[in-house]
Every structure is written in structure tokens, then in C-alpha cells.
Amino acid sequence: MLRGVEYSDEEYVVPLVASMDEARLALQLGPAGLRAIDANLVRHVEHRAQKVLRVVAAAISAGAFSMGDEPCFELHVRRLIGLAERGVVVGLGNLRRPGFSEVCLPG
After folding, report:
1. How far is CA 6 from CA 23, 72, 98, in A?
2. Which end of the chain is more exposed for a tag (fewer CB within 10 A), N or C?
3. Which CATH number fits domain 16-104: 1.10.540, 3.40.50, 2.60.220, 1.10.10?
4. pLDDT digits (tens, 9 = 90+) for 28-75
5. Sheet of 102-104, strands arranged across
6. Measured at the alpha carbon of residue 21, what is the angle toward residues 24 and 11, in degrees to the nearest 5?
7. pLDDT (0 to 100) of residue 62
8. DSSP states along 72-104
9. Helix (H) or strand (E) holding 58
10. How far apart are CA 16 and CA 85, in angstroms?
11. pLDDT at 27 over 50
């Protein structure tokens, strides 16, 4: 799924700090593009817990991005983490490990 990753996708951990490419992508998208990513992420979260990887993949597809684009993937995960920090979604586990963590809607 991600170029340059030497271990299985399920073991992938999003770095603590955004890469230059990820930061550049966020800047190119601007506030409206980032809000669109957030909306796509929330749209794909359900009341039952589901893997972060599944939610991110669905949001990437809905936004017409490429799953093979590492900065794009990491930006989506980071945006989902922000949604969890704001209480928009509930995160279960370490969300930086998308293959092992889950999210659901509150309530």
C-alpha cells in the first residue's frame, strides 16, 4: 500500500511529525480541502468500531486521492486523530497504528 514501507501495512505506524511532503500537501489543499477530508472521514465512521485503515481507505477513495501516496495517507490518519482529539469520533487504541486501532462515532 505505501511505498517505502518495509513491513506489513498492518504494522505501519504514522510518524509523530508530518513529513515535508505531507505538510506541502496540507498547504496545497488549504482549509477547504482539509475540511473536505474531515467530512469524508466522518462520513465513513460508523457507530460500531471499525479499523482506522478501513475508514481512511474509504475517505481517500471518496476524495479521489491515491492510497499509494504516503503523504496523503498520513495526512488522512493525522486528520482522523484530530477529529478524535476534538471528540467528533472516538478513537480506540493508538490511532497512529491504523491497522490495529479503531474508531467509531460517539454515543
Report:
1. 23, 18, 16
2. C
3. 1.10.10
4. 999 999 999 999 999 999 999 999 999 999 999 999 988 789 999 999
5. 50-51, 102-104, 90-92
6. 135
7. 94
8. HHHHHHHHHHHHHHTTSSEEES-TTSTTT-EEE
9. helix 52-62
10. 15
11. yes
